[in-house]
From TrEMBL, chain B:
<keyword id="KW-0472">Membrane</keyword>
<dbReference type="InterPro" id="IPR048634">
    <property type="entry name" value="SecD_SecF_C"/>
</dbReference>
<feature type="transmembrane region" description="Helical">
    <location>
        <begin position="26"/>
        <end position="44"/>
    </location>
</feature>
<keyword id="KW-0653">Protein transport</keyword>
<keyword id="KW-1133">Transmembrane helix</keyword>
<keyword id="KW-0813">Transport</keyword>
<dbReference type="InterPro" id="IPR022813">
    <property type="entry name" value="SecD/SecF_arch_bac"/>
</dbReference>
<dbReference type="InterPro" id="IPR022646">
    <property type="entry name" value="SecD/SecF_CS"/>
</dbReference>
<feature type="transmembrane region" description="Helical">
    <location>
        <begin position="194"/>
        <end position="216"/>
    </location>
</feature>
<dbReference type="Pfam" id="PF07549">
    <property type="entry name" value="Sec_GG"/>
</dbReference>
<protein>
    <recommendedName>
        <fullName>Protein-export membrane protein SecF</fullName>
    </recommendedName>
</protein>
<feature type="domain" description="Protein export membrane protein SecD/SecF C-terminal">
    <location>
        <begin position="113"/>
        <end position="304"/>
    </location>
</feature>
<comment type="function">
    <text>Part of the Sec protein translocase complex. Interacts with the SecYEG preprotein conducting channel. SecDF uses the proton motive force (PMF) to complete protein translocation after the ATP-dependent function of SecA.</text>
</comment>
<feature type="transmembrane region" description="Helical">
    <location>
        <begin position="276"/>
        <end position="300"/>
    </location>
</feature>
<keyword id="KW-0812">Transmembrane</keyword>
<feature type="transmembrane region" description="Helical">
    <location>
        <begin position="165"/>
        <end position="188"/>
    </location>
</feature>
<feature type="region of interest" description="Disordered">
    <location>
        <begin position="320"/>
        <end position="367"/>
    </location>
</feature>
């Protein structure tokens, strides 16, 4: 006879045993005495989660590219030589930001870009988007330029020349647009204060200005008007609002036809323009209105920016500002261009910061900035300042991105794979259920209910996690869930086998259930912990598909613990009170005779009322 | 239930059982043999790394493509200038693999293939993989494996003891070696799916081992306070006691995986589902085997070297010798000795007298 378990408890009254076997008596006792409470708790939790699921409208888990169809691109950041430190969270986040803009600029806003691991970026483009174009967009490096503004106006679909001012002529000439912003209402006090330097008064569309950097060398004398570049570029020089230096007719025509409020127009605006060309572009001003621009050739390159960051300027109450630092070459170029621009009337005193053909900011210039650094101020909030700084930094990111894998799955195959995964899961579940039914009979009722609760919880949580953390169910995740059926079922098996062992010792069901629990609980916790550890390590360390798998495995392992503690055990306690189970009905799976239980033998002396079910002289 | 249930009862009581610990040398030998074969297979044949590890492209055409395999091969080779492998899948679609091309070129090839095969380019599934992607996945996996092993050894050393941690680690390495060895020997293609499957085995193999160890720990808690059984014998009984659970767990774990394998292989032809389930299937079987035949006997081996356990063994043997000499076995101890003489099968241990002796007394006082 198995030595250790028997002598420890068999001869003692059950009550005494409980104290020995369950050190955390309070907890165990409460779980035992109030099984309904835990059951109610988990049922309420399920109901609440399900309610939340329907309320949020996400009744199915979000599907990954391999199940829904689409293109998934994995990019790997490659640092420039000697700049290994460039792969850090800030730079990667900036890159993700930029790529998001570009991919979603294609006209589909469902594409998602996220970092994975420390150096990978995953771009998922759902079906229906031109995946080729998207790939091109993602693959190329961002182009950030500083271009002088020649003309700008609010672009509205209805009226191509919306200029409300008296001087507004029908022609889309630069001068018209110069006054076209008289209606701007977002002008800050600061803008008004500085507007005196700009002849056409109302200054920039976005109420932002480049002022000299705090530490900039105040030498406006270097102001660039004598710069050799001046003649080379068709920047409107001292035109005083006249259209003396009008860009060529082609650009003019493009400008006239451009409707920035239209997504398609926007996507094609200024496409293919070389940095040395005069071009048109779109941008969104601080009121969210689209504005169109004619821009001169690029004066400063994104790569000329050494560093840009958002700073809260405590002096002068300027609030959030963005400071830029230029490289040596960039500082010179920037000094040149600002020197020229500062002498222009509005809007030609503005320069546009153009990222991938879109104007992200168009500050105006008061004076030549030659110190190698500059500050853009305006009425930024922190987020705006941060985002502008990020964009400015991007041109300077010492990273390039390489395509590591590109997977294109047609919707048909995706559907098929999803179908296959579901069928495989159903078959797996059915096989497990059949096995449990055959082997555990009545007990399997508890196991199957627990499996169902577990499955329901997994489904609901996955659905909710879709929008919450961007969880997408992909094929490996489905595999993880199917594998988890085994781990979940094992917890029940461990517990049931323990109960049966106790019954074989000659115990009746109710004490057996309570006595088996502390030991089964420990085994379940220890083994689930190992399983969870595996999932967690995989999730943190690995990339790509492995991560999706690890996530599901970890989630289901956690849910397994929750279900066993709050559902299976209380249900078992309740069921143990029912006659069907307690009397050891031969279909209950707990029939002492079939289990080969020991009769209590002499211990009956010490236990005056041996439970009927356990008296079985078979083995005596 | 009845038969297995009765078997479970008999295993539980130690009436029947297999002497896992006593026969450990045989099983060690078998495992070493398998491991050597696996390592040799790995060294000689190497792993058949999938396209994901070499870089290249896999195109899958829509169903019912009316082009023969050899025809498609020619098309693909023309289009890419590289060797192409074409397989026909169960549903009539073609799987075209081209190794050694980079992702930029793959687009052109796809278009050209679409032209040749007369299907819409948008309807071709394409998986383009840079040469370093698979390597990266594999590297990360190894890294994860190393971190996981260290953490688990620490955890097991705290939760159980270092001997068990070592034994579990040996069993884990054993499982992984065998699984990869089978991949090398049979020549299955290794894909990221395989890696995922392999990593799951980690968790599962340990999970299984931990359950057996848990019962072992419980049964050997007061082992030095008695003189009836040595550590090895108790270890053996704890394996037998959890045998039913181990069988059930393995069956329950294998059933869904079998479902995956069937669906993955039967319906989809090839792909992630198939790769994962294949390595899982092999690994789970190895994991169940190793936790019973390798891990626990190994713990017993290590434990028997401990001075306290050596002393215990001495006492136990001395007592048995004495009992055998005295010809008057108090409490059926003669039976114990007799059954120990036949190590292959642990005979009945249920003697009413013995049970009576133990009743109601704390185990420590029994002597």
């Amino acid at each position: 006879m198995s030595w250790p378990p028997r002598p420890r408890g068999a001869g003692r009254p059950e009550r005494e045993y409980e104290k020995v076997a369950a050190p955390k008596k309070g907890r165990s006792a409460s779980a035992q005495s109030k099984p309904w409470r835990s059951l109610a708790l988990i049922l309420i939790a399920i109901a609440a989660l399900t309610g939340g699921m329907f309320w949020s409208g996400n009744t199915t888990p979000r599907l990954g590219i391999d199940l829904a169809g689409g293109t998934s691109i994995t990019l790997r950041a490659v640092p420039e030589a000697g700049q290994e430190g460039a792969i850090n969270k800030t730079n990667m986040d900036t890159a993700v930001d930029i790529m998001n803009r570009r991919v979603n600029g294609l006209g589909v806003s469902e594409a998602e870009v996220q970092t994975q691991g420390d150096r990978n970026i995953i771009v998922n483009i759902p079906k229906g988007t031109n995946s080729k174009e998207a790939r091109e967009q993602v693959g190329t490096t961002a182009k950030l330029y500083f271009r002088p503004v020649i003309a700008t106006e609010i672009s509205e679909p209805a009226a191509p020349t919306p200029s409300p001012s008296a001087s507004g002529s029908g022609s889309p000439s630069p001068s018209a647009s110069a006054t076209g912003k008289g209606d701007k209402s977002d002008q800050s006090d600061k803008d008004k204060a500085t507007s005196s330097t700009a002849p056409s008064a109302t200054a920039t569309s976005q109420g932002r200005a480049v002022t000299d950097a705090l530490k900039a060398d105040p030498t406006p004398s270097g102001s660039a008007s004598g710069s050799p570049k001046a003649s080379a570029t068709p920047t409107p020089s001292a035109s005083g609002g006249a259209s003396g230096d009008t860009p060529d007719a082609k650009v003019q025509a493009q400008y006239a036809a451009l409707n920035c409020a239209d997504e398609k127009d926007r996507a094609t605006a200024g496409k293919g323009a070389k940095p040395t060309d005069t071009t048109v572009a779109c941008g969104q001003n601080s009121q969210g209105l689209w504005q169109k621009y004619i821009l001169g050739p690029a004066a400063v390159d994104g790569t000329d920016v050494k560093k840009a960051q958002a700073v809260f300027n405590t002096q002068g109450a300027a609030g959030w500002t963005v400071t830029m630092e230029f490289t040596g070459k960039g500082a010179k170029k920037f000094g040149d261009i600002t020197g020229k621009l500062a002498q222009q009337p509005s809007p030609q005193n503005q320069f546009a910061i153009v990222l991938d053909g879109e104007v992200v900011s168009d500050p105006y210039v008061n004076q030549a900035l030659t110190g190698g650094s500059a500050e853009i101020s305006g009425r930024f909030d922190q987020e705006e300042a941060q985002s502008l700084a990020n964009m400015l930094s991007y041109g300077a990111l010492p990273l390039t991105f390489k395509e590591d894998s590109v997977t294109t799955v047609t919707a048909a195959l995706g559907g098929e794979q999803l179908h296959a995964g579901l069928v495989a899961g159903a078959i797996g579940l059915a096989l497990v259920v059949i096995y449990l039914l055959v082997y555990y009979r009545g007990l399997s009722f508890i196991a199957i209910l627990s499996l169902l609760v577990s499955a329901a919880l997994t489904y609901v949580i996955m659905s909710l996690l879709g929008p919450a953390i961007g969880f997408a169910l992909n094929l490996p995740a489905v595999c993880g869930a199917i594998v988890a059926i085994g781990i979940t079922a094992d917890s029940f098996i461990v517990y049931f086998e323990r109960i049966r062992d106790e019954i074989r010792e000659g115990r009746s069901l109710r004490p057996a259930v309570e006595r088996a629990w502390p030991r089964a609980r420990r085994t379940i916790l220890v083994s689930d912990f190992v399983s969870f550890l595996a999932a967690a390590v995989l999730f943190v360390v690995t990339v790509g598909k492995v991560q999706g798998f690890a996530f599901t495995l970890g989630l289901t392992t956690l849910l397994d613990v929750v279900v066993v503690f709050l559902f299976t055990k209380p249900l078992m306690t309740i069921m143990a009170r029912r006659k069907f189970y307690a009397s050891g009905h031969r279909w209950s799976g707990l029939d002492p005779k079939a289990l080969g239980a020991k009769p209590p033998l002499r211990s009956t002396r010490r236990r005056p009322t041996p439970p009927a079910g356990s008296v079985d002289p078979k083995e005596a | 239930m009845s038969k297995l249930g009765t078997l479970g009862a008999r295993l539980h009581r130690g009436e029947v059982g297999y002497d896992f610990v006593g026969n450990r040398k045989i099983w060690y030998g078998i495992s070493i043999l398998i491991t050597i074969t696996a390592v040799l297979g790995l060294a000689v044949r190497g792993l058949n790394m999938g396209i994901e590890f070499q870089g290249g492209a896999v195109f899958t055409t829509p169903k019912k493509t009316n082009v023969s395999v050899s025809q498609a091969e020619t098309y693909a080779e023309d289009a890419s200038g590289h060797d192409a492998i074409v397989q026909q899948l169960g549903d009539g679609s073609l799987r075209i693999q081209v190794a050694g091309i980079d992702t930029d070129k793959a687009d052109q090839i796809k278009d050209k293939l679409a032209d040749d095969l007369k299907v819409d380019a948008e309807k071709i599934n394409a998986e383009l993989v840079g040469p370093s992607w698979g390597e990266q996945i594999a590297n990360k996996a190894w890294q994860g494996l190393a971190i996981f092993m260290i953490l688990v050894v620490i955890y097991l050393a705290i939760a159980f003891e270092w001997r068990m941690a070592v034994a579990a680690l040996v069993a884990l390495i054993h499982d992984i070696t065998i699984t990869t060895g089978i991949y090398a020997l049979v020549g299955f293609e290794v894909t990221p799916g395989t890696v995922i499957g392999l990593l799951t085995i980690l968790g599962y193999s340990l999970y299984d081992t931990v359950v057996v160890f848990d019962s072992l720990k419980e049964q050997t808690k007061d082992i030095t306070k008695q003189t009836r059984w040595t550590y090895s014998e108790v270890a053996n009984r704890s394996i037998n006691g959890t045998l039913v659970r181990s069988i059930n767990t393995t069956v329950v774990a294998l059933l869904p995986v079998a479902g995956l394998l069937f669906i993955g292989g039967g319906v989809l032809g090839a792909g992630m589902l198939n790769d994962i389930s294949l390595s899982l299937f092999v690994g789970l079987a190895a994991g169940a085997y190793s936790s019973i035949f390798i891990a626990t006997p190994l713990v017993a081996d290590l434990k028997e070297r401990e001075p306290a356990m050596k002393a215990l063994k001495k006492r136990v043997l001395a007592k048995r010798a004495q009992a055998a000499a005295g010809e008057e076995p108090p409490g059926g101890r003669g039976d114990d000795t007799a059954e120990d003489a036949t190590p292959a099968v642990v005979g009945p241990r249920t003697q009413p007298a013995a049970r009576g002796r133990g009743r109601g007394r704390p185990s420590g006082k029994r002597r």
